[in-house]
Amino acid sequence: MSISNFKKDVDKALSSNPKSISSKYFYDEKGSKLFQDIMSMEEYYLTDAEFEIFDEQGGDIAEQAFGNEQEFDLVELGAGDGLKTKLLIKHLLKCGKKFDYIPIDISESAIVGLIEDLNAEFPNLNVHAEVGEYVEALKVINAQSNNRPKLVLFLGSNLGNFKKDDARVFLSKLKESMRVGDKMLIGIDLQKDPHTIRNAYDDPHGITKQFNLNLLERMNRELGANFNIDLFDHYQSYDPTNGEVRSYIYSKTAQTIHVDALNKDFHFSAWEMMHTEISRKYALLEIEEIGAEVGFKTSVQFVDSKGYFSDTLWELTS
Description:
By secondary structure, the chain is an alpha/beta fold. It is built from 10 helices and 14 strands. β6 (150-154), α7 and β7 form a beta-alpha-beta unit. The model has no long low-confidence stretch (mean pLDDT 92).
């Protein structure tokens, strides 16, 4: 991700009212490491729930996704460390499937680490990684493809980072780089006890706080900003009526921030919020509905034993 885009978006974010910035900027090298720590927390149930699905139902996923296909491309959006995907790869290889794995991530360090792990664990697996944003990278892959069918993985409840209307727009753009008959396995966090959800996003260990505030530290490191991290904190809210978790960074005092790369000052009022992330939770029926609205048919929904999480298999039909 280019520094020029980061600079431009930070300028827009700090100048806007209310202040808001894309969550994609969480994931520099330090942010990616902190997110790995979050996924290891007991409170962050999403990782364990989806891992259980892949561990216990991976064979069924492999057969349902491409039971009759001889060769295909396995494309993953937001691959990260590939922890869950490695389980699926094992099941696919065990079933004798022939495929190339194409992980996409905006974090170059995450991709480098993933490739090293895959080469060690699956030395005969063909891996063609892409660093970049999902839609653009998928367009590049599609342009280079040999017309083999694709199974696109979009795991970890990443769709929840969009408002519902924005999720439709994103899926429509994604669809443009897919062909009829291609499939998507989409991981989505389900609505559940609100206290369980709140604990996952505001943990007692302070890791989510570090993750949020690293965004300001990144501005200091890369853009020469002078944020005093001690004068900021993070806040999480969950609204069970619409399923939205919202994350914020807020200023604990009135202050002015200077950003060298922009040669500009930006004012924060006391208790002023900057929105950083949304994480929407869905009902199972909603997942079917949003897929159908875009042109995907739901084939099967794989759910963990607690009913916390779903990996839903969609097929592009139109």
